[in-house]
Amino acid sequence: MGLPLSIDSDQGRHFTGKALQDALQLLGVTQKFHISYHPQSSGQVERLNRQIKTMLWKFVAANGKNWNQLLPLLLMCIRAAPSSASKVTPYEVMTDKQMRLPEHLWYELGAPLTDRVELDKYVHDLQQNIQQMHTSVAQQLGCSQKKAKRYFDQSTQQVQWNIGDKVLVFGTPERALCHKWEGPYFIVDKCSPSVYKVHITGKKKPTEKWFHTNQLKLVRNNDEILGITGKITQSVRQLAQQQIH
């Protein structure tokens, strides 16, 4: 398929390493990162990965050793399955053809060969068909994405933050029974109405990280911080007392 114009990924070390970044820069590929600890930023990829893992688990439940041999077959099944949003298969979107599966051999044996079409006419028809296919898929996906956005917006807080606001950030603690909200920190940049850069301090080295608005909580005074952490501390104490008794 050739080199992509851009690659979207999470912020794993295998994606942020200098070797890969230098290689992508050399090839002219733009690298875009998703928000940390916010799976919704890469929802389509996460759903596909979950689908692949589920299919692999059903096949390798017996021994769990030959997943690498089954992976190409499972990917073929996914590429040949129509999307619920676009109503066509990924393979058809790329080639304007139905994927030829092993089962088709049962019906094709003994069938006469079709006449060879002229190359120029074939290329012209293929170009037109693919263009029409992409237009149709874009319309179908547009409707599906609007529906998904309405569903997501129902549970998303519509808050506009300003540079300089003092906020708490929601992270993933490395140790159990740690506070989920950390801070306070300050917003230093804005990428969009829902993505902000926060200056993180209090660790070995100050850093700046991007967060989704759902991962931020405005701090108006210090009592609010004590209220949030106090509830967590009280819950931990109650849990400890229950274990003692």
DSSP summary: helix tally = 8
Question: At the third CATH level, what is the topology name of the domain at 166-244?
Answer: SH3 type barrels
* CATH class assignment of the domain at 166-244: Mainly Beta
Strand content: 15-25%
Compile the SSE list and pairings.
Elements: E1 6-9, H1 13-16, H2 18-27, E2 30-33, H3 43-60, H4 67-79, H5 90-95, H6 105-108, H7 119-153, E3 166-170, E4 181-192, E5 195-200, E6 207-212, E7 216-218, H8 222-244
GO molecular function, one term: nucleic acid binding
Protein name: Integrase catalytic domain-containing protein
Domain Integrase catalytic: 1-98
Structural notes for this entry:
GO terms for molecular function: nucleic acid binding. Residues 1-98 form the Integrase catalytic domain. By secondary structure, the protein is α+β, with helices and mostly antiparallel strands. Among the domains are: 80-100 and 122-155; 166-244, SH3 type barrels, CATH 2.30.30. It has 8 helices and 7 strands.
